[in-house]
Every structure is written in C-alpha cells, then in structure tokens.
Design brief:
- The complex is a heterotrimer of chains A (about 150), B (about 375) and C (about 280).
- Chain A has helices spanning about 15-35, 40-50, 55-85, 85-90, 100-105, 115-145.
- Chain A is mostly helical.
- Chain B has about 375 residues and is α+β, with helices and mostly antiparallel strands.
- Among the domains of chain B are: about 20-95 and about 170-245, Rossmann fold; about 255-360, OB fold (Dihydrolipoamide Acetyltransferase, E2P), CATH 2.40.50.
- In chain B, α2 (about 110-120) packs parallel to α4 (about 155-165) and α3 crosses α4.
- The radius of gyration of chain C is 22 Å and the shape is globular.
- The chains are: A mainly alpha (about 150), B alpha+beta (about 375), C mainly alpha (about 280).
- Chains in contact: A-B, A-C, B-C.
- At the A-B interface, α2 and α3 of A face β6 and α2 of B.
C-alpha cells in the first residue's frame, strides 16, 4: 500500500486532521446524542398525520430542533481541537506549527531558551478564546435543553 | 355521503359540518408472537364519538394507529368515508391525531403548530394564520397564539394539539389517551371541552383510553377491548348496566364476586335467587358478579344470624354516595349507598344485606371467591 | 412506522456501524500487526516486542507509576467529592450550581494552559517538598473532577437522598452513619463508575506529565516510540486493551437501576477521557 505517495503527510499539519478525528468523533457523539434522544417519535407521527413527509419532517421539525445542538457540538470540537496537545506532540517533532506546541516549546525549550512569560501570555490568549467558545456553547445548549428535554 | 349504519346511542351529534362514516373491517396485526389485533371490525357512524376502552395491551392503541396509518395492518381494511385507505400512508389519509403528551413542536409557537398542517397543504400564509387563530379560539386559547409549548400548562398544550389536529379539517379525529398525562381536575375539564368541540365540529372521532370514567362520560358508544378483540360495544349505560361478558362486568366499575349455585337459569347466592344474564350457564357452583349498587343494607332489627348478616368494617365517603365494606365472616362485600344511608351504619354496626334481583353475570373462572 | 422505512433505517444503521467500526478498528489492528513484525520485511511474526515490555525497566517503572497515580487519584477524588456532594445535596442546595461549575471547569481549561500555570508551582514543589512522580496526583485530581462529578451526580440523582437521610435520621442514625451506611451503598455503581473513569483519565494522561518532566505511561510510550517503535506500539495496544476492559466493566456494572434522563445541558465527554488529546 502506498498511502504516503505524496510524502509522509502523517507527521505534518495535514496529518493531524485525520488523527484528531479519533477523539473528535466520540466527543461529538457524546455531546450530540442527548439531543437526538430528546427527539420524540410523536413529532414524526404528528408531522405525518398533518400531511408531511420525510423531507418536511427534516426540513421543518428535526433539522431546526437539532441545529443548536449540532452547532454547539461543533463549537466544542473547535475548542477541543484548538487546545489539543498530546496528539500533535506525539506526531510532530520539529517546529511549533500549532498554538499548543508553541506554548509547550516556549515553556520547556530543550535548548535553554525557555521563556515562561511568553508561554503564559499565549496560554491566556488560549483561555480567552476557549472561554468565548464555551459561552456561545452554553447559549446554544440552553436553547437545546428547552426544546429537547 | 355513504349510508349510515344504524348505531345505538347516536343522536347528540348535531353536526355543523357533516362527519363521514369509518369502517374497520376484520383488522389483524401481530408484533412477533404477540397478537395485538385479532380480527377487529367496527363501524363509526358519521359524527359519532366512539371510545375504545381496555387494559394496556388490549389492542386499542394499535386499532387507532392502524386507522391513522401510522402502522400497517397484516390483514383487513380501513374505509374512511367510503374510500378504502388501507394502503395509504399517514400523510395521505386526512386524519387529525392528538397524542398522549409532548407532541407539540417545541420550536414553534402555538399558532405555528396549528398552521403546520395547513402549510403542508400549501395554503397561503395569510390564510394559514387566520385559520390557525380561528381554531385556537375554538379550543378556548385565543390569547395564547404566540406561546411556546414550554410556556403552557399540560392542559393548554393538549388544547393546542387538538386545535392542530382540527385545523386541517380532517375526516376523522383520533385521540390517543390525550388526557392521561394531566391532573385529575384538568382532565375532567378538558374531557368535557373535547366533547364540546367535537359536537360543534361534528367530526367522527375515535378516542382511546384506559380510564373507564372518561370513556363512559364523553362517548356516544364505548367499545371494550380485550386481547385484540372487541368484547362489547354499546352506549355507556348499556356497558355499565348490561355488560355482555364477565370481562366487561369486571373491567367497568366495581364488582363483588360472590359464590353461588346455578340451577335452571338463575343463581342462588346466600339464600337470594337472582336471574342470569347469560341463558346457557350449566347448573352447578359458580361465582356471581354483583354490582355494589345492587347491594342494600339495613341496620338494627333482626341482625343476629343469616347468610347475609355481617359487620360494617369500613366506609369510603365518595360525595353523594358512600361505599361500605361489610364483612360477612367468610367474604367481604361492597355496597354503594346514599351517604345519608351509610351514615346510619358506622364501622362496627351489625347489618343485614339485601341483594337486588337484577340479572347478573357468572364469572368464567371460579377463583377469587370463598364458597358459601 | 411502515415496514419499508424500518428496513431502510436498519440498513442505514448497519452501514454506519460498519464504517465507523472499520475507521476505529483498522488502525488498532494495524498497530497490532506492526507490533508483531520481525526485524526485516521477510522475518516471521514474532511476539518479541511484547516480551520486551517486561524487560524494559524504564517502561515497567512508568507503568507502575501510572497505576499508583490512578489509585491515589481515585482515592483522593472519592474522599473529596463524595462527602462534599452528599452534603451539598442535603444541606446546601443553593451551592450546587457553584460546585457544578467548579467541577466542570477543568473540562474547559486546556491541559496545556493548566501546565503553563502549574509549572512554577511544581518547580517550587520539586525543590522544597518532593520530586516524586506521585505529586502529579494533585493535578490529576483536578483533571478527573468533571468526569467523577458527572458519574457521582448521576448516581445521586437516581436516589432520593433527602428522604433517605431524613428516614435514617428519624430512626436515630448520626450523619456519619447516614452517609456511610445509607447513601453510599445506594450509589455504589456511581462510585465504581467515577473510579473507573478516573483511572482511565490518569492512565491516558500525557500533556501534563510530559511538560512537567515526569515519565508516566504515555510519556514512556512516546519516548520509546523514538527508540524502539515496535515495543512502544505494543505498549500502546496493551494500554488501549486495558482501557477497553475498563469500559466493558463500566458498562457491565454501570447500568443504572433507575434510568436517569441524560441532561443535554452539560457536556460529558467521558469516553474520550481514556486517550490523550
């Protein structure tokens, strides 16, 4: 098999994406599943008895109901991927091509150029970003929990 | 308009909009090894409200869902207003359905919910809005058009669900235990409200419930079901007063089970001879099913001995009537009396019971009663 | 639902299951395949890499350190959370939102950020108290809080703590008896869940140990990956298996006796706890 026909991409930035899906997919499932559970079979049946078909059900009922949970989950995945470190650290040996690697490298530079101040500043930026995402996530979750208890 | 099948107890339906006849013919449905419907045949006259009553698992909900098109029958036919709809999916059947609870679309306001069916029928936005508001007025929720489900009580939600089902002007209204999730008080009020609206619209209606009081209170006819079959169908008074089978007698209302001996078309229970409903009961020991209303009691006088002499051990006050439990030594008997009569026999009083000679049913099996 | 649609749905389900199953299992299978490779392309299959695990002292030490950390963290978590949560539920219900917020906070703070904050503290601790790897238990206690909190919360929500406590109190039990003999036995499954999740988190932790210069299981795997790839992959497969066994145990005991509705309000990525992110 020649999955590396275009070079060993696994150890580059584009190699991180497929590997990240390994912890992102389960996270999405866990976040999204309660919302799916909240969808009641009566809604489907009500749609049908009112004259709607499968398309109408997804377009007007299930789609709008699940949208907040879906976008909320996506936000959470964004924050999670943004702050992930271990996977990148294991795959990428050189360079600080993503924020978490940069923080780690400025924190504990092997060549004695550690600058904890910069690391802390970067970490703070990360916290602010994650906080914004979490606030948005909470807003969307609140809507979901009102609709889908 | 198809021919009206003569049905007992239809009369109150003063239809403002004529309903249509509904025929279920020999419907059968199995779930794996469980037979949910075992050849159900039932005809609803135009504008009639028929309540299907029975214990859980008797097939009443399956019957409703087959009529709605939410399930497919293994055999039999469903005919609505003369058209065979057996093979049609739910969204082509023109039925309005009210579910047990939580069926409102939570992201839509009350009027948007009601208008949804009209939208599916490609009715213009202005018309939709107008008809939705009209229908909400019909169910007494004129001021609630812009509320969401979570801003309404359970009773109000069910009213919106009713309006949503009616707004599409369906041929049939189907109610699947619509009151079972509500408080007792709301339940009675909404029950009467459903009946009022149904009579006003004149729509043929099938109402499924496990609550006998509900069924007896609002239906033109009540069908009692057991094991996928219709045990008896008739006006509420007939179901209660002249149950056709022991199952109906025991399922609807309270019943005393008293041991007796059948001989020549009547049964002797503790010295009282009572005629039988069923003509073909073989002679021999049997259990008679006697309503508490058919039992009266006298205190004082001659209450020393006798097969129907006993002691009052409890009295349950039910309002205008009271239910008195009398211990006859080997068996306990319930008697339902006017509260003023029950007051003269407090717990501990020796009383003489009298069994009224109304025709009674014999239980199919003899368990559950001590021999006299 | 019509039979036709039910069939379609069933096919859809099986298809999704197969695709996802392959997506997750193929790499693990490939890891196992790689760990049994011989030295050259043509060499026969060998379990040498697996046998070498026990003969690599650094690795064995790291495994034991991680296990010890898992036990310490679980114990600390139980001592901290169980009495607190019961007490808050019984006597201080107005604090429950605060406790929940505090416990779920570590979920939202990236581990890498946590390290940036903790580095000076651990530097000081190394010099003045102890440089043992077991001091990591303090950070790990914080890391497992969200998972343990959710597990214990589910258990507590399934029982009527207040009524149980009032019944026991009215029968003459003191508060200690109420907690240990009445409430804790009724949430034993939740406690087991909380412990297993904590163990999974600790065994999968990489970021903090690595950046604070401790060698736990995951760090050892990563280090070894550069020296002896097949052995490192063998350990990785073994630790995955271990996590899988923990999950099986969890799902076996974890069936709650009363079904508790999942709350969509709070994220609970419990299963991702097992692996480093």
């Amino acid at each position: 098999m020649t999955i590396y026909a275009n070079g060993v991409w696994l150890y580059q930035l584009r190699g991180l994406a497929p590997v990240y899906t390994y912890f992102q997919i389960p996270l999405m499932v866990l976040v999204f599943l309660p919302a799916l559970d909240g969808i009641r079979p009566q809604w489907r049946e009500a749609t049908e008895s009112l004259g709607g078909g499968t398309w109408h059900y997804w377009r007007y009922i299930a789609g709008p109901l699940l949208a907040p949970a879906f976008f909320g989950g996506t936000l959470l995945l964004f924050a999670n991927a943004f702050s992930a470190y271990a996977t990148a650290a294991a795959l990428i040996n050189q360079g600080s091509i993503i924020a978490s690697l940069l923080i780690a490298n400025t924190l504990t530079s092997e060549v004695g150029l550690a600058s904890p101040g910069i690391a802390s500043a970067l970490a703070l930026v990360m916290v602010v970003l994650v906080a914004i995402v979490m606030v948005l996530y909470t807003v969307l979750q609140r809507r979901t929990s009102r609709w889908l208890q | 308009m198809t021919t009206v099948i003569a049905a007992t107890g239809v009369g109150t339906a003063t239809a403002s909009r004529a309903g249509v006849e509904i025929r279920l013919e020999n419907l059968r449905r199995r779930y794996g090894a469980v037979t949910a419907l075992d050849g159900l045949s039932l005809t609803l006259a135009p504008g009639e409200l028929v309540a299907l009553l029975g214990p859980s698992g008797c097939g009443k909900t399956t019957a409703l869902r087959l009529l709605a098109g939410l399930e497919e029958a293994d055999g039999g036919r469903v005919v609505i207003g003369g058209h065979d709809v057996t093979g049609l999916p739910a969204n082509k059947r023109d039925t309005g359905m009210v579910f047990q609870a939580y069926s409102l679309f939570p992201h839509m306001t009350a009027w948007e919910n009601v208008a949804f069916g009209l939208q599916m029928r490609k009715i213009g936005a202005a018309d939709r809005r107008r008809r939705a508001v009209e229908t909400l007025e019909l169910v007494g929720l004129a001021g609630f058009a812009n509320r969401y489900a979570h801003q309404m009580s359970g009773g109000q939600q069910q009213r919106v669900a009713l309006a949503r089902a009616l707004a599409i002007r369906p041929k049939v209204l189907l109610l699947d235990e619509p009151l079972s999730a509500l408080d007792a008080k709301v339940r009675v009020r909404l029950r009467d409200e459903i009946r009022r609206v149904q009579l006003e619209v004149g729509i043929t209606t099938m109402f499924v419930t496990h609550d006998q009081e509900e069924a007896l209170a609002i239906a033109d006819r009540v069908g009692v079901m057991q094991s996928g079959r219709l045990e008896q169908i008739g006006p509420p008074t007939a179901i209660y007063g002249r149950p056709a089978t022991p199952f109906v007698a025991e399922f609807v209302g309270l019943t005393n089970r008293l041991a007796g001996v059948v001989r020549g078309g009547s049964v002797e229970v503790r010295g009282t001879r009572i005629p039988l409903v069923q003509p073909d009961v073989p002679d021999g020991p049997a259990v008679a099913l006697i309503r508490p209303e058919a039992v009266t009691l006298t205190s004082g006088a001659d209450t020393s001995t006798g097969p129907l002499v006993g002691t009052v051990i409890a009295t349950a006050f039910l309002g205008a009537t009271s239910r008195v439990t009398v211990d006859l030594g080997d068996v306990r008997v319930l008697a339902q009396l006017a509260t003023s009569d029950a007051a003269s026999a407090p717990a501990g009083t020796r009383v003489q019971l009298t069994l009224r000679a109304d025709p009674v049913l014999i239980a199919r099996e003899t368990s559950g009663a001590t021999p006299a | 639902m019509s039979r036709n649609r039910r069939l379609k749905l069933q096919i859809f389900r099986v298809a999704v299951f197969l695709v996802l199953g392959a997506f997750f299992l193929v790499p693990i299978g490939a890891m196992f395949e790689f760990s049994t490779r011989g030295v050259t392309e043509e060499a026969p299959r060998t379990l040498n890499a697996w046998l070498t695990i026990a003969q690599t002292p650094d690795l064995v030490a790291a495994i034991f350190a991680s296990l010890a950390l898992a036990v310490l963290t679980s114990l600390g978590m139980l001592l901290l959370l169980v009495p607190t949560m019961i007490w808050v539920r019984l006597r201080l219900p107005h604090l429950s939102r605060v406790i929940e917020f505090l416990c779920l906070l570590p979920l939202t703070i990236p581990a890498i950020v946590l390290v940036a904050g903790l580095a000076p503290i651990y530097l000081w601790m190394n010099l003045n108290i102890s440089d043992s790897i077991l001091t990591l238990a303090f950070v790990y206690l914080i890391l497992v809080l969200p998972y343990a909190y959710r597990a214990l919360y589910t258990g507590l929500a399934a029982i009527d703590v207040k009524t149980l406590a009032e019944a026991a109190r009215s029968l003459g039990a003191n508060w200690g008896t109420v907690m240990l003999r009445v409430i804790v036995p009724n949430m034993s499954v939740a406690i087991l869940n909380a412990c297993l999740l904590s163990v999974a988190v600790v065994l999968g932790e990489f970021t903090i140990a690595n950046l604070l210069n401790y060698v736990n299981l995951q760090v050892a795997i990563a280090l070894l990956g550069r020296a002896n790839a097949t052995v490192s992959i063998a350990v990785a497969v073994a630790s995955l298996m271990f996590a899988f066994i923990l999950l099986v145990i969890l799902s076996f005991f974890g069936r709650p006796r009363t079904r508790v509705e999942p709350e969509p309000g709070i994220p609970f990525p419990g299963l991702t706890a097992g692996g480093p992110r």
